[in-house]
């Protein structure tokens, strides 16, 4: 049964890595809530500002065309309110602590002067909101955000296609210099343990080798041998789109890698939510080192009158930078409006999502789940076809 609750003031926060389209969601939410006469309180720096009462009122009239501007006017953080609770070893004790934290967080609504909260974030931020709803009945709704596109229950997260465009443009640009110098370029692309950004921007820009986390790669067979085959059919430069989360198979790691060992992969430092800090690993750099040390490849390329120079480019945070493209502006606005409608209708514990052409909603517990690329996806097949044709003459 739907219980209608009069909401007068709504809080909104953005958490996790920033992303093009965050401001578009905020604007969509504001447009709809303001029309309904509801006051909107911006909470700064995600869960950090929530805990520290860092708030300011947002007025739609002060924020003309906010949806066109990149980043988030609310600032963001990777603060995890459950960090301490999650460290508790005993599972019953851990649950108790998480529940107590969720109750405390929910009790803060009064202090912050809000009746409901809209959380815009990835699986980490939404996971925090979900526990508040599950354990303490908090009036929360979520909006899925991340350039990584790694959230289930939504066809695309906003920010993803803007990041794809940036990465694709960068690979296009790198291709011209790679061609001029006859070089091998390894382009490292964000996305953590999901390869969506790398695969789709790699296909879009015509990368020659694409390495994604969902498929562990064999350096010898899938990189060295492919470059040799490409040289044999006359290709003189090679672009490798490498996901920051791409890792070799254990066999390849043992056989082909001189610069890292398995322990280095297992012992990466982690962020507040336990995600490995992949920037500290820099797989592109490792691959460059390994390729550069291959005398057999140098000999082979010489035989086909090709240079042997290898470089890496880490696109890193440039992929999250700048203004959202039109798709992400519109998606962000629509998701923001839909989140506002849920709140106005008194429906909580939901995450808004894109399903085909429609904006719908799912439970936060469903929405906070991760999505990597299924190995039978047509994107994987397309990636294979588009790269294979370039060395199979
Ligand atoms: O989740 C978004 C993301 O951009 C990932 O692709 C990347 O691994 C991570 O954030 C980087 O985090 P930070 O901004 O903390 O360096």
Task: List its traits.
393 residues; Rossmann fold; 15 helices; elongated; binds 6-O-phosphono-beta-D-fructofuranose
Task: List the SSEs and their pairings.
Blueprint: E1 9-14, H1 22-35, E2 39-43, H2 46-51, E3 55-58, H3 83-87, H4 91-112, E4 116-121, H5 123-136, E5 140-144, H6 160-181, E6 184-189, H7 196-205, E7 209-211, H8 219-232, E8 238-243, H9 250-256, H10 262-266, H11 283-292, H12 295-303, E9 310-314, H13 326-344, E10 350-355, E11 358-363, H14 364-367, H15 378-388
Parallel strand pairs: 1-2, 1-4, 4-5, 5-10, 6-8, 6-9, 7-8
Antiparallel strand pairs: 2-3, 10-11
Helix pairs in contact: 1-13, 4-5, 6-7, 7-15
The site of 6-O-phosphono-beta-D-fructofuranose has 12 residues, from loops.
Tell me what you see in this structure.
Helix 4 (91-112) packs across helix 5. By secondary structure, this protein is of the alpha/beta class. 44% of the residues lie in helices and 15% in strands. Helix 5 (123-136) links the parallel strand 4 (116-121) and strand 5. The longest helix is centred in the first third of the chain and has 22 residues, at 91-112. It has two domains: 9-158 and 324-367, Rossmann fold, CATH 3.40.50.450; 161-320, Phosphofructokinase domain (Rossmann fold), CATH 3.40.50. It contains 15 helices and eleven strands. Bound molecules: 6-O-phosphono-beta-D-fructofuranose. 6-O-phosphono-beta-D-fructofuranose is lined by residues 17, 122, 146-148, 190-192, 244, 278-279, 320.
CATH topology of the largest domain: Rossmann fold
Total discrete domains: 2
What is the strand content? 5-15%
Low-confidence regions = none
The 3D shape can be described as: elongated
Structural class: alpha/beta
Mean pLDDT across all amino acids: 95
Q: Provide the spatial order of strands within the biggest beta sheet.
A: 3-2-1-4-5-10-11
CATH class of the largest domain: Alpha Beta
Question: Could you give the order of the helices and strands?
Answer: EHEHEHHEHEHEHEHEHHHHEHEEHH
Task: Describe the main β-sheet briefly.
Answer: 7 strands, mixed
Helix content bin? 40-55%
